[in-house]
């Protein structure tokens, strides 16, 4: 049977002491080495992307000349704090390189993203980037997607109906909560977290999600979107 639990409380953005921060930092800093002067750079969202923004800020202060676009208000604020010039999208027609994290990466380098609730803007940046570099720590690697509930951005209008349609795809759904209230995205929408037993056919799921009115985007980022995957390991190794 299909259950819809719209009351569950999730706090995906809370710091987690078990998260291997050092591995995230290593991967993020490796990615920043691929940024050159003159580039337009897309800034991801989340703790790993934040390490990349901080590392980029250091390089900018040392003379690297870039223009950046941000995938969230939070990342834009961090970029400004560390001295990265953030530009309006109307200033150019493509992004040279976007650096962003992920919640899960499968063996075919398909991703689940959206743990931080920024998946729509993140996907727009990734889609419009010549190079999309994904930076993760080893805990994000999986054989098959789906252990992490798939975030889906939906509009608030008739959200209960949209949740029902999502549930009919075979998942348990809940509207993401933060501080006891609905989590609201930078686009003034809601996030439905969709807990599938497993996602064995991400491409067909992506198509079925896209057909549901009220769904803005899902957190499935499918190949060939990723140009480069950089994995940081807790023992200090980096795979690039
Ligand atoms: C935000 C995202 C993040 O990239 C994802 O949640 C990974 O976050 P972190 O680097 O903090 O583990 O998709 O919407």
From TrEMBL:
The active site is at 122 (proton acceptor). Residues 1-19 are annotated as: Disordered. Keywords: Isomerase. Its EC number is 5.3.1.6. The keyword Isomerase applies. Pfam families: Rib_5-P_isom_A. GO terms for biological process: D-ribose metabolic process; pentose-phosphate shunt, non-oxidative branch. Belongs to the ribose 5-phosphate isomerase family. NCBIfam families: PRK00702.1 (NF001924), rpiA (TIGR00021). Catalyzes the reversible conversion of ribose-5-phosphate to ribulose 5-phosphate. This is Ribose-5-phosphate isomerase A.
């Amino acid at each position: 049977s299909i259950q819809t639990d719209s009351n569950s409380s999730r706090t995906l953005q809370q710091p987690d002491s078990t998260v291997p921060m050092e591995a995230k930092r290593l991967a993020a800093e490796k990615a920043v080495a691929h940024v050159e002067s003159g580039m337009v750079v897309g800034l991801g969202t989340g703790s790993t992307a934040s390490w990349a923004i901080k590392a980029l800020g250091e390089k900018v202060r040392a003379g690297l000349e870039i223009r950046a676009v941000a995938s969230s208000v939070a990342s834009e604020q961090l970029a400004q704090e560390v001295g990265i010039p953030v530009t309006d999208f109307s200033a150019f027609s493509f992004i040279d390189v976007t650096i962003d994290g992920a919640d899960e990466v499968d063996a075919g380098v398909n991703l689940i993203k959206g743990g931080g609730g920024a998946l729509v803007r993140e996907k727009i940046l990734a889609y419009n980037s010549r190079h999309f570099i994904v930076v993760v720590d080893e805990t994000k690697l999986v054989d098959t997607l789906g252990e992490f509930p798939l975030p889906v951005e939906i509009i608030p209008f008739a959200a209960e109906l949209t949740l029902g349609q999502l549930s009919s795809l075979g998942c348990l759904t809940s509207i993401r909560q933060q501080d006891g209230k609905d989590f609201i995205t930078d686009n003034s929408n809601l996030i439905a977290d969709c807990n599938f037993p497993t996602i064995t056919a991400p491409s067909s799921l992506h198509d079925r999600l896209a057909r549901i009115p009220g769904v803005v985007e899902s957190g499935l980022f499918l190949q060939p979107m990723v140009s480069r995957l950089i994995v940081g390991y807790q023992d200090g190794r980096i795979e690039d």
